[in-house]
Amino acid sequence: MQLFDRDGSRKYLTVAERGRFLRAAEQTPREARTLCMTLAWSGCRLSEALALTADRVDLAGGVLVFATLKKRQDGIYRAVPVPPSLLEALDLVHGIREAQRRRGRGAGVRLWPWSRMTGWRAVHAVMVAAGLSGPAASPKGLRHAFGVAAVSSGIPLNMVQKWLGHAQLSTTAIYADAVGAEEQDIARKMWE
After folding, report:
1. Which single residue of 14, 49, 86, 137 could bond 132 by disulfide (Cβ 3.0 to 4.6 Å)?
2. b/e for 125-152, b at 16 or more Cβ within 10 A?
3. Strands 63-67 and 77-81: what pairing?
């Protein structure tokens, strides 16, 4: 896995591009907005977001608990801390507290009962509205942006590995290969 495609184009959104994406998401229907926020602030895969159920939104703990779908076995979960604003939006739009008070605590109550293609189209529409294009303008570009932002912020690689659900630390280490402003931010920490 690399952060650049065969043509040398970046496969991740910069911090500024991610900000534009989130601002554009504010103008979309509420369900699409919360999906976009979830992808941007958790670094999860689109399929993992679409599989998220109300019982896996831990409002008190401040985390989303994702079933790691890429490991090809059931029962592997990871908790990812997310901003309070995302948790509030999920509760407001999807009725998390109400679902968790019911029998089963919201198990099986998917937040977005959409197909993968419907979710992809919703994210793509926001990318277009934000003026973003190319390989980075995708749900995967948001995942990569999360990894780059985490490393740029000084989050230890083993923690980023845990949040992204990577089996190998070497996979996570690609986020240390960021360029441009992100690379400058990383280097600046060494210079100070």
Report:
1. 137
2. ebbeebebeebbbbbebbbbbbbbbbbb
3. antiparallel
Nearest partner of 107 among 64, 55, 58, judged by Cα: 55
Residue 163, classified by CB atoms within 10 Å of its CB into exposed (0-12), middle (13-18) or buried (19+), is: buried
Which sign, positive or negative, has the C-alpha torsion 107, 165, 161, 41?
negative
Predicted TM-score (pTM) above 0.90: no
CA distances in angstroms from 4 to 1, 51, 122, 174, listed in the order given? 9, 28, 24, 10
CA 94 from centroid of its chain's CA atoms: 18
CA distance 149 to 18: 10
**CB-CB contact of 51 with 60 (8 Å):** no
DSSP code per residue over 7-30: TS-B-S--HHHHHHHHHHHTTS-H
CA atoms of 27 and 32, how far apart (whole Å): 10
* Nearest Cα residue to 147 out of 8, 6, 5, 15: 15
Per DSSP, 170 falls in state: H
Helix/strand/coil percent split, the chain, to 5: 55, 10, 35
Q: Give residues with Cβ within 8 angstroms of 47, minimum separation 6.
A: 69, 116
pLDDT single digits (tens) 70-128: 656 677 899 999 999 999 999 999 999 999 999 999 999 999 999 999 999 999 999 99
